[in-house]
Amino acid sequence: MTELKKMTKAAQRKATMDKLIQIATREFAAKGYAAASTEHIVEQAGLTRGALYHHFKNKAGLFLAVFRTAQEEIGRRVESSANSTGDLWEQLTLGCRAFLEASSDPVLQQIVVIDGPAVLKWETVRQVDASLDDGSLSLLKECLAELVQSKTIIPVPVEAIAHLLSGAMDEAAVWIAQSKDPVTALEQAWESLNILLSSLKVDHQD
Predict the structure, then answer these.
(1) Which of 51, 100, 110, 173 is most solvent-facing, going by the fewest CB within 10 Å?
(2) What is the DSSP letter of 201?
């Protein structure tokens, strides 16, 4: 019975946290971090401010949880797109394209691309990305390692090239967010990135 009570409390705690994250995601995406109201968030959730602070300590703590969830969503979209084909090279290109598209989604863009670096320390942003087993960076490393092993791409140091490509895509996402014509910017970013990726192919080096 005691174990059941513990499980029930844990499930209730998770449900409350998930609810707050879901509502906060909408609030942060619509208004940006600075203008988002924790009072409005708890009001919509039917909870007290004390409940929010109990689970997340403060507004920044809540945003970190929202940021992590948004990063997980980007990873899911990347993985879904990459898994639509069995061809390793296409997995890389489709995954990278999916990253740029997901980062251009208005909700994810506001939280991850615009507010994330401004609200969180750069070290925290990197730690979140690196800690996700199915995050975009982990998926990129995995795909690149398989491409090297299959000799589809030249034998580059996977860790190094993964961070270089990830940094390039992160910067492209910021540029797209700041562009007056994001649709065109996305296509130009993808065209340029595709050239960089193609330079890694073994047959390109011949």
Answers:
(1) 51
(2) B
CA distances from 26 to 128, 140, 146, 154 (A): 20, 28, 37, 43
Please give the structure tokens belonging to residue 205. Answer: 């080096």
Q: What Cα–Cα distance (Å) separates residue 149 from each residue in 1, 25, 133?
A: 52, 40, 21
Closest CA to 155 of 89, 204, 194, 202: 202
Instruction: Give the integer Cα–Cα distance in Å for 37 and 121.
Output: 21
CA angle 7/11/17 to nearest 5° reads 145
pTM above 0.85, yes or no: yes
Q: How confident is the model at residue 4 (pLDDT cuts 50, 70, 90)?
A: low
Residue 22 has pLDDT above 80, yes or no: yes
Q: Between helices 158-178 and 136-149, what is the axis angle to 10°?
A: 130
Closest to 114 in 3D by CA, of 177, 169, 189, 24: 177
Q: How confident is the model at residue 1 (pLDDT cuts 50, 70, 90)?
A: low
Alpha-carbon span 135 to 74, nearest angstrom: 7
How far does CA 58 lie from the centroid of its chain?
Answer: 22
**Do 128 and 206 contact (CB within 8 A), yes or no?**
no
| Dist CA 24 CA 98 (whole Å) | 25
**What are the tens digits of pLDDT across the range 26-37?**
999 999 999 999
pLDDT tens-place string over residues 131-162? 888 889 999 999 999 999 999 999 999 999 99
